[in-house]
Amino acid sequence: MQREFFADGVNSIHWTGNLIRIDFATVQPQIKAQDGQPAIESNSRIIMPVDGFLKAFELQQNIIKQLVDAGVITVNNQQETVVTEPPEQKN
Q1: 3-state SS assignment for residue 91
Q2: Among 41, 82, 85, 89, which lies 20 to 30 A Cα-Cα from 73?
Q3: Would you state the pLDDT for residue 75?
């Protein structure tokens, strides 16, 4: 059985021995942090061996290249990724 979950982003990544632990987080708009912004809450964790982590990273790099090629994101000279508006669909 496959399970899906949503995450707004990665909260932290830890390396211990041969395992990588990736903690995912979601924004909790109903809960406010001390600065008044919505709280970020860790909600899920993936634990995988280093070789699995490296393969996942390779797949993510391929998706980033596709997003850049499609004009969805741009990468500036400082290697910062900027999300842009999706290109208009041509009819």
Answers
A1: coil
A2: 41
A3: 80
pLDDT at 40: 92
Segment-wise mean pLDDT, segments of 10 residues, the chain, 91 residues: 88 96 95 91 94 96 93 76 56 44
Burial class (CB in 10 A: 0-12, 13-18, 19+), 20: buried
CB 53 within 8 A of CB 20: yes
d(CA 79, CA 68): 12
CA–CA separation, 28 and 38 (whole Å)? 6
- For 12, counting Cβ atoms within 10 Å of its Cβ (0-12 exposed, 13-18 middle, 19+ buried), the class is exposed
